Amino acid sequence: MKYKEISIRNIESRPEQIRQEFAEEKIESLARSIAEVGQLQPVVVQKKNSHYLLIAGERRLRAIKKDGKEKIAAVILEGDISPEKFRQIQLIENLQRQDLNPLERAISINKFMEDNNLTKKDAAERLGIARTTLTLWLNILEFKKKYQKEVLKEDSAITLSHLSLAHALSSKTGDPNKINELLDAVIKHNLSRKETQAVLDIFYKYLHIPMDEAVAAVLLKRERLKMKDYWDADKDKNNHRPVRKLLRSFNNINDNLEKYMEEEGDLSEKAQEDLLDEFLYLYQIMGILIPDLKNRSIKELLEKIKNN
Fold this sequence. Notes:
This protein has 308 residues and is an alpha/beta fold. The chain has 14 helices and 5 strands. Helix 5 crosses helix 6, helix 8 runs antiparallel to helix 9 and helix 10 packs across helix 11. Among the domains are: 80 residues, Alpha-Beta Complex (Conserved hypothetical protein from pyrococcus furiosus pfu- 392566-001, ParB domain); 83 residues, no CATH class; 42 residues. The protein is elongated and about 90 Å long. The longest helix has 23 residues. The protein is 63% helix and 9% strand. Strand 3 and strand 4 form a beta hairpin. One of its GO terms (biological process) is chromosome segregation. One of its GO terms (cellular component) is chromosome. One of its GO terms (molecular function) is DNA binding.
């Protein structure tokens, strides 16, 4: 292994390049950076007769060319390098630099495993990463292109962590439709990883209720938390306002109900009757305070809340 500056004209890109997409604006940004402070990291090449084969650093090479330079700093690997070893070196270099998008990374690792007949454990050891991390990275290959593309978007809610949760759902249910319902909800409602886990907790706990109902429950909680923050922000200032005190009381009831559901889960028949009586009484009182309630059934009210 040697390190020196070599002529750009003597470098050839190998056809089995891992990285397939090169955003022009990022190349130009890198070129400006190199023009400003110089080339901080060398490319990696293989000596081949009178020329060099590029192993890693395609973006750096393109940026140097844009900057109009004739030479580039390079680490030169001498001697024969098998295609398998070449791919391993290229993969490790790109992984260390975090130079691949999640899909390119997964495709490259998967091909490396297939070419060398490796298990996930063996591949993780050769690439110097944890097996759990490698498994997380590879999950993306098991999903539809629609969701793969979502992961690549900078403004998308879906991350590899969301895919990991969806993968676990697949293992437990074996129903691909549930995976689609979950990930579509993540996209539509911008669910965080924590909220997505909450959806699955509800789905698993209550005998696989419809996914949209589990999502609706989490969205309702999201809105409640927003309102709780709003009430708490100026609690002292508005303590004298009866309506705000009433709303805070309802919020405490909801907190206690959620806590009970998490700790106990079920109610005795007598407890169900008692709570139902209290609910119906509260509903009648609310009907006096809010006349519009009299014109809607409970089912209509629930549908309105869910839709909102």
